[in-house]
Amino acid sequence: MLGLMQDWPLLCHRIIDHAALNHAERPVITRSIEGPIHTTNYAALRARALRVAQRLERDGIKLGDRVATLAWNTWRHLECWYGIMGIGAVYHTINPRLFPDQIAWIVNHAEDRVVMIDTTFLPIVEKLADRLKTIERYVVLTDAAHMPATALRNAVPYEEWLAEADGDFAWKYFDENTAAGMCYTSGTTGNPKGVLYSHRSNVLHSMMAAPADAMGVCSRDVIMPVVPMFHANCWGLALTSPMIGAAVVMPGAKLDGASIYELLDAYRVTFSAAVPTVWLMLLQHLEATGRKLPHLRAVVIGGSAAPRAMIQKFQDEYDVEICHAWGMTEMSPLGSLCTIKPEYAALTGDAKLDVQSKQGHPPFGVEMKIVDDDDRALPRDGKTFGRLKVRGPSVARRYFKEDSGAVDAEGWFDTGDVATLDCYGYMQITDRSKDVIKSGGEWISSIELENLAVGHPKVAEAAVIGIRHPKWDERPLLVIVLKQGQTATKTEMLGYFAGKVANWWIPDDVAFVDEIPHTATGKIQKTALRDRFKTYAFPVAAAE
Amino acid sequence: MLGLMQDWPLLCHRIIDHAALNHAERPVITRSIEGPIHTTNYAALRARALRVAQRLERDGIKLGDRVATLAWNTWRHLECWYGIMGIGAVYHTINPRLFPDQIAWIVNHAEDRVVMIDTTFLPIVEKLADRLKTIERYVVLTDAAHMPATALRNAVPYEEWLAEADGDFAWKYFDENTAAGMCYTSGTTGNPKGVLYSHRSNVLHSMMAAPADAMGVCSRDVIMPVVPMFHANCWGLALTSPMIGAAVVMPGAKLDGASIYELLDAYRVTFSAAVPTVWLMLLQHLEATGRKLPHLRAVVIGGSAAPRAMIQKFQDEYDVEICHAWGMTEMSPLGSLCTIKPEYAALTGDAKLDVQSKQGHPPFGVEMKIVDDDDRALPRDGKTFGRLKVRGPSVARRYFKEDSGAVDAEGWFDTGDVATLDCYGYMQITDRSKDVIKSGGEWISSIELENLAVGHPKVAEAAVIGIRHPKWDERPLLVIVLKQGQTATKTEMLGYFAGKVANWWIPDDVAFVDEIPHTATGKIQKTALRDRFKTYAFPVAAAE
Hints:
Helix content of chain A: 25-40%
Strand content of chain A: 15-25%
Radius of gyration of chain A: 25 Å
Number of helices of chain A: 15
Largest interface: A-B, 78 and 78 residues
Low-confidence stretches of chain A: none
Strand order of the largest sheet of chain A: 2-1-11-10-12-13-14-15
Oligomer: homodimer
Shape of chain A: globular
Mean pLDDT of chain A: 95
Structural class of chain A: alpha/beta
Distance between the termini of chain A: 66 Å
């Protein structure tokens, strides 16, 4: 027997409708790409989003078509998202930091028909234009006065293009499972993979993000999403903010410490979210200038692990509460947020930081489990670690144009991370599953060994990789870059681990190197490192 | 084109799964019907809910079957809800305060197969048992030691019944639109009407209720739902609390001021919700004893309008923030909550109370509009009032076993209330639509005139009803009960309105009476009053 409640599909444009009616005058402030600060509000933004929808329709864009955006966080980018979604087309955010070849591959794979592009990114696309077969039009997100000369096909300044629509238009209505947004995730191997968000997944994700134990934002907040809209769906903030009626400050193209500080201060931002790199720049700026953060209440840090010292500095020196978060493009992206549950509410100092260094706990709507290599669930004891699998209405089940699903028979998505879960639901990443070292059927966390090694006073950087071993399958090799002018022996280095980890975790050998390879985003490139040591064999004594 | 996210139906038992995994040890404390305080937690509650599900299945209860509950707020009632929903059966909460005839009618109409019943309510049902044709079994919510003698069919103490299931059981999975719960609403005319909640509507409603601008609750809260589970779905708190992992204090059968205070104090309750009558009893107890409320952070008041003086007293004398709320059984039930948006954040004193006296603003997922008699939308100016219509995923579209829908062609449900909406989304009820007086095509609020009239020092109670008028269709008649020993003239009474309302709002005549009829819940019974004055005609002078 079915219930008798209304059929009210979860459509993303209902979010901007709600904001325009109930939070009409709430400001949306942008540091525009042209320079000046631009201010609008949700009522005006919705009106322009309707014009975007109307204008796209006139260009022949229809249900299911992909419209790419290559743009910073601005009010224009925001109204484009709603306008695109409001006719059932799909916003496809492209990360301009990708290699040009990847961008070309992604645009062609997505079969984007239109690109909405900031002037900043024109040079990238101009070099690729010949290879972008499906693009019919480039809408440059500026006005006629600021329109650069460009040979891009049918390029038009956004404001002129938009002026051709009068806004006398109504949203389209369709199934809530209709595609709404798209974001490619670039793994370390193979081609990028397209994640295809639905209206339903975006709306549910926004509802999951709002409460106190997740983002914890409300209509009295001024939210600055520094995390770009092209980075993993802007961590949901482009939808959560209007849903709850918060004011929004969009940082545009300038993400340096001074520029971010200026906006935080001038617009009394209470809540922000970004990767550690951004906060590092801000903290350096604050230290250099002696400024404080009297308005900022809370900051979400994700994208990569939040350094403990960063959490501590924000909280102790600037009275800003840090929420460590974890997610994936495939998860819309929120997976866990590290707010403090009552069991930990009395903690202070190091004990609190220990908790906050974890990636947090899942909100309702995200299921997590850890499993061993045979897919058996492992205990939630905060110590045992296993492959982290997730499930939920805002988790991907398949990549765009892939024939096979991305989930197992029970619907679980393998995150590729190795983690612990504790009895309160807190998750901590201990490794990537391809980096974990499998020794005699047990797992050794490469990250934990690396974190220990860099604690040695002579070590500048350390990496641990698994090396084939005749008896144990794999054993850890410690790769070390010493600090300038230091010398050390293998025995000295390995002795440092004694008493700090189980004996069988201690690496079997040490390789001193001049440099450890890094990815574009500064992470250790384990694949390259493994490649370099692919012919390495442990000394005979160690191999026994 | 559809998105490629996971199909993860919104099922209510996923809520208790989430709580049991992520908030396992959070306490659920009950003042038991037997007397002592009982403590359990979400992990244990889920385990027992699974046994309820398993045991119901053994009794032959299956998808779509209705299981009635006639019970106070206790841990047993809570685990019954989840157990019932977990096999796709429907919890049907019966309000024991209804007339026995209504209860019999409702049980037969719902075709309930089992009744889960507190010992308190056995006498009610024993008198009706012969008429309850569909009931196969009565499960009495107590243990064998406290089981009263009863002749009810197949009556069994809950704990014995439950002991026959070992809990080795898994929830059923089904479409999220499957019926989950049922609650009858008793209008002033006709038979009660059954509202049939779905799993989807219950889950979405809980997600709407949690954020700061709605209930504003989190895992660090200790929530006491004083509003009964048999009253309009417990305002969602039986689902929202485990969803966000809050501790719960269940007040059982004792809702008097002293008992409520005792729980608030002993278990450091931070958040509660109830009708004004309950809070009146609590405030009287506090005044009589000089106690304070150091732990209580916020209280939601709904069910009927929160008196201004009550809001003021809670906030000024006890430092408890009041959230005035409005809803309907047909809305799951939340419609609006009066949290303070930034536009009003600086208000204090009377200006703040003016806002808080409104019924509040809708969360995302509730659409509201006001319309005139021709169904044209009226302006959101905070002054114009019209019929309040609502729409959303947790609003009813049809009543149980009714052939015709309860919504208009565009899906709007008419609340039967007359209200204003302001530009910030705040709604204020000004009347019931059947009580509003339609004079010359314009509407006059009976409630506003009544509120004014009782401000007159000689008036004990006042009611205003519309009387047929040859020229204006209807004109207001003021019905007054004077205070003991007072006398007054019609001219004196009507003169009191001068300058306080528009001249054409002033009633055309006054009827002095000894008593005004009331409903069981203390509201003015306008139908009875109109009946009494059905032959009344205005004096000739007034009728011109």
